[in-house]
Amino acid sequence: MNQTTEWLKVDSLDLEAQGVAHNAEGKVVFIDGALPGEVVQAQIARRKNNWEQGTLSAIKKESAQRVTPGCPHFGLHAGACGGCKMQHLHPAAQVAVKQRVVEDNLWHLGKVKAETLLRPIEGPTWGYRYRARFSVRYVAKKGAVLIGFHERKSRYVADMQVCKVVPRRVSDLLLPLRGLIMAMAERDRLPQIELAMGDEVIALVLRHLNPLPPGDLALLRQFAAEHGVQWWLQPKGPDSVRLLDEGGPQLAYALPEFGIRMPFKPTDFTQVNPHINAALVGRALRLLAVRPGERVIDWFCGLGNFTLPLATQAREVLGIEGSEALVERSRENAAANGLAHKTNFVARNLFEMTPSLLAADGIADRWLVDPPREGAFALAKAVADIVQDPSLAPGWAPPRRIVYVSCNPATLARDAGLLVNLAGYRCTAASAVNMFPHTAHVESVAVFDRDAMA
Ligand SMILES: C[S@@+](CC[C@H](N)C(=O)[O-])C[C@H]1O[C@@H](n2cnc3c(N)ncnc32)[C@H](O)[C@@H]1O
Ligand code: SF4
């Protein structure tokens, strides 16, 4: 195919950070690498009845927001790293795009308009990523090892020598790690290294398909001593993760605003960006505005990231979460932070919520909801069903305020539609959260109020 288009004026960016334009026939053209306001040509790679997709090939009018990418592996070329999508757009403009995505999704998918758009939550744009999953490939033909993210639109591992979105200390490990894997006898049976950083520890989880011989273990120990990392070994699924050597500092992060310290295991869910996480927890709690006598439910509570700060303010907090391991971690963390007497944790599949299950969780004044990408449909639907037909849960009352933290604006919008259009809530505030600068991921937070709050 590879035909070049006419000059096209780019109107907007889509969720994959592709420029969106219309050609002379009125067809939508998605253009990798193009920015809103630019006049560009594209090489077309895919053509369908009502849309085409291609890659930027020439620019006649450049956006004032276009910047030089900060990482040498970013680009449109073959072999470019697929980890970032927006490095060519000024970070402030990235945030504006994400804020717009949240607004547009709420309106188009949920028919909801937030009464106030809050200032987006922003943090450092480089070195922010404390979690990452690097693929490892031993390429026998070249006698080389690659460690990194996948190339753009490909299953190959990018030839990543540095990475600007992970902390410098981690980026500096990429080449030494190649040398380590190359020296190991099991080098072709080691598919992945997962990074999980705490405030003091760089934990690396090595997935190994065969038991590791003593020589390989000795190499790992030598690497740990030289580079100050902590090795964890993963022979099977995430539950099989074990420290290579006990002792040493504990993997943990702090939430200083609330005097809380959260130990975790490297395969537990923790937020990718600790700077934004601390700001997000602070913002969410200010928005929720819990009063001392109140009961709160933290849905999808993970290891207690919001539950424990909430417990410093509320009378009582119930945390509900699907993973037994995380519920166990929440309990341990509540106890370690002296908050066990104010918290309860339950493991449950929240995609299977019904009005009677919801009623059994009791009345709470406020809810914090932080679901995975799939959203909290069953929960929002159960609230809407009870509001529409109170006989489904006699005596139960919906919370007056809900703060919903989302990693997928489409499912947030769908659930917001239920809360606002069927359950009598108003969406009083919303904002984007720039948890993942340079990527197209959009994190956001929205507030729903049922009664006028004092
Ligand atoms: C975005 S994380 C939020 C975790 C926590 N609030 C935090 O800030 O660390 C979503 C959580 O939902 C949990 N989860 C995923 N599917 C679930 C389900 N069907 N039922 C209950 N919890 C689920 C995950 O284990 C994860 O802990
Ligand atoms: S993920 Fe890292 S290596 Fe890849 S483009 Fe982004 S900064 Fe560069």
UniProtKB/TrEMBL annotation:
One Gene Ontology molecular-function label: methyltransferase activity
One GO term of the biological process aspect: methylation
UniProt cross-references to InterPro entries, sorted A to Z: 23S_rRNA_MeTrfase_RlmD (IPR001566), MeTrfase_TrmA_CS (IPR030391), NA-bd_OB-fold (IPR012340), SAM-dependent_MTases_sf (IPR029063), TRAM_dom (IPR002792), U5_MeTrfase_fam (IPR010280)
Keyword set includes Metal-binding: yes
Coiled-coil features, chain-numbered ranges: none
Protein EC: 2.1.1.190
Enzyme class: transferase
Entry binding sites for S-adenosyl-L-methionine: 271, 300, 305, 321, 349, 370
Cited HAMAP family: 23SrRNA_methyltr_RlmD (MF_01010)
Family: Belongs to the class I-like SAM-binding methyltransferase superfamily. RNA M5U methyltransferase family. RlmD subfamily.
Protein name: 23S rRNA (uracil(1939)-C(5))-methyltransferase RlmD
Organism this protein belongs to: Pelomonas caseinilytica
Lineage summary: Bacteria, Pseudomonadati, Pseudomonadota, Betaproteobacteria, Burkholderiales
